[in-house]
Automatic annotation (TrEMBL):
Homology family: Belongs to the glucose-6-phosphate 1-epimerase family.
PANTHER family on file: APOSPORY-ASSOCIATED PROTEIN C-RELATED (PTHR11122), GLUCOSE-6-PHOSPHATE 1-EPIMERASE (PTHR11122:SF13)
Annotated source species: Sulfurirhabdus autotrophica
Catalytic center residues: H172, E275
Name by which UniProt lists this protein: Putative glucose-6-phosphate 1-epimerase
Length: 304
């Protein structure tokens, strides 16, 4: 982006004392938000929430110290937006895993100071020849991010075409935790999941989730709040959701993290992904003219 474009962006959409556009790491353009409740940084590439930190707290999102910031490369951490498919493309092996939304530019459509001091930014995915080649459908998609005491992220897809569309999607959120040994994930007890580490075997979750090795699971038909109970940071992160029927829990552990090159040797101890998703048998079919919203609201509660 040229400096003139950055000026134009700021003239149109900055909010005095709350939101400014800047050149961020790797030359990526970011929206920097700071209000009475929290601070956040969002890259226009991918409409990617990179950081979110409520005032007086540890960051809620994990961003790898080894993340690579470059055009067309997904950022390791924060909230990558996976759309319009989750995981590998169902038939085209050469298409990017988790869709292209996380690596292409999004347009800023609107910014506003809302509620009691929250800051909202609305993005629309910018279609290009490349996106149209992989997804030749009239299906505008929006991401609405609200930064306040909670972080709210809403992904809205419309089917403006004349045939049904099948969408897989995830707000692939990386959470910052004190240490993987000091945390448990609650809210998925007594549900079924497909275990990607065991070739998609179908399994049953009895109690809370503890992570002591590679975990890569799609919990199906799960709509309840998830809680990450972090004894080290003495807080509970609550992930409330709407329009999402799958929850993905992922931690690559050591071997897989080593192969990825942007995780770092200790990264797997400081993070867990709890993803608000519609994946595998929970993909969404949108009839012509239909609109679908998937919303995650992330907040924290003290454990004291
Ligand atoms: O490295 P990527 O493409 O960002 O994907 C990370 C992980 O994302 C998770 O959602 C998947 O379930 C994992 O299988 C995958 O490894």
């Amino acid at each position: 982006m040229q400096p003139a474009d950055l000026n134009a962006l700021n003239q149109r959409f900055s909010i005095s004392g709350q939101l400014v556009f800047k050149e961020g790491p790797g030359g990526l353009i970011v929206a920097e938000i700071a209000n009475a409740h929290a601070e956040a940084v969002i890259a226009l590439q991918g409409a990617h929430v990179m950081t979110y930190q409520p005032r007086g707290q540890e960051p809620v999102l994990w961003l790898s110290k080894f993340a690579k910031f470059a055009p067309g490369k997904s950022i390791r951490g924060g909230v990558p937006v996976c759309w319009p498919w989750f995981g590998p493309h169902p038939s085209e092996a050469s298409y990017p895993a988790h869709g292209y939304a996380r690596t292409v530019m999004w347009d800023v459509l609107e910014t506003a100071a809302v509620n009691e001091g929250d800051t909202q930014i609305k993005f629309g995915l910018a279609e290009t020849e490349t996106t149209r080649a992989q997804w030749p459908h009239a299906s505008p998609v929006l991401l609405i991010v609200t930064i306040g005491k909670a972080l709210s992220v809403e992904l809205v897809t419309s089917n403006n075409g004349s045939t049904p569309l099948v969408i897989g999607e995830a707000l692939h959120t990386y959470f910052n935790i004190s240490d993987v040994a000091d945390m448990a994930i609650l809210g998925l007890e007594k549900t079924d999941y497909l275990d990607k580490v065991a070739d998609f075997a179908s399994k049953h979750q009895e109690g809370a989730i503890q992570i002591e090795s590679e975990v890569d699971r799609v919990y199906l038909n799960t709509e309840a709040d998830c809680l990450i109970e972090d004894r080290g940071f003495k807080r509970r992160i609550r992930i409330a959701k709407k329009g999402s029927r799958s929850t993905v829990v992922w931690n690559p552990w050591t071997e897989k993290a080593d192969k990825m090159g942007d995780f770092g040797p200790e990264g797997h101890r400081e993070m867990v992904c709890v993803e608000t998703a519609n994946a595998l048998e929970n993909v969404v079919t949108l009839a012509p003219g239909e609109r679908h919203s998937m919303l995650a609201v992330i907040s924290t509660e003290s454990l004291d």
